[in-house]
Predict the structure of Outer membrane protein TolC.
Amino acid sequence: MRFVISRLAVRCAAGCALSCVLGGAAVAQSNTAPSLSATASPVAPTLAQAVESAWQRTTQAREAEGQTQRAAAERVAISSLWAAPPALEFSYRDDRWQTSAGRREAEAGLAWPLWLPGQRNARGAAVDADVELSQAAVQAGRLHFAGLVREAAWGIAAQKAESDLADAQVRSLQEISNDVRRRVKAGDLAHADALVAQSEALAAQSAQMAARQRLSASLSQWTTLTGIALAPDLPSVPVSDGAAVSPGGGHFAVETHPDARVAALTVERARKRLDVVAATRRDPPELLLRIRQDTPGRGESAQNSIGVGVRIPLGTASRNQPLQAAALSELDVALTTKQRTEERLAADAAMAQAAVHTAEQQLEAERQRSALLRERATLIDRSFKAGETPLPELLRALAAATQADTSFARQQVALGLARARFQQSLGILP
């Protein structure tokens, strides 16, 4: 009886994994994702859709909305004619408990806080800086969650590739086990060979279940992060794509990165707050308007009068120095943070680009190794058919070829992830 091991069985492991990584197909199996209607036609989400969904589920998005509302309220406050809400004054006195001559005095007044020279413009500039900073923080927050989404998406791709390889390995070893049993019954092989083949098939089944469990866990984490049950549609990963190039093919402008923009706008806000402190050397002066009614005694007519006054608080060192010191400290911290952020972003981009180059070289090496070991497994298959090679040698060759295919598939995912991390380091959203 001929023992047939199709070359396709040796190669199918790599084919399944590569089709998954290159295609980014959605996973909708009952043991890895929520069940779908039989009539539904689910479409795998893009990374951009997943990032938007993940962002909308975060508390940072709510905080950004709150900052926008606070800035709008501050603008309304600045547009007022008064530096602070007006105050109402009222006083009354008589001699009821002393001479009881009927003397009475009542006074009512209003106090309007006035803007100091330049104070309103300084506060308006500070509010504008807060608005710009909140908008930049939203972009930086989206970028942060884009990094999480990219890591999760390529993690699913890696687990999917390993799961497909495990499925292909189970099918291949099961075919070998079935054919060996037939040859044992025909007397061509020993019973020990059947035991070995069956044990290898069972080991492959165990590895298959473990791979499926890891894939299910990755999908659960993805759903928790994005609220989407389907795996993402990832871009293809060509075997050879050359060096990664920054946008426009030029030098990376670190100032355009959302994190660097947040740091720069934080410095600008600190400067504007320092200007507010400089323009507010004292509490706002108050315009006073009072109406007074005096009654000299019983039977005498009341006398009314109107008074206008100004209350000017004095600015002292004990009041101004702590405020100015706090503003200067905030500016110094912001400048230091900006410098360190730009240095970190430049270093991250350089390391990410180097990682892409390394991953491309490793992928080419894994491709050649996989091709060599697949060819070796094919030659040993022919030798086994001719009765020149024992079964254990064939199983070892098949295991080595499968391991090489697995490494090749993993390296393709690693290259895709390295490129995604490089885009992340440049501050580019999907």
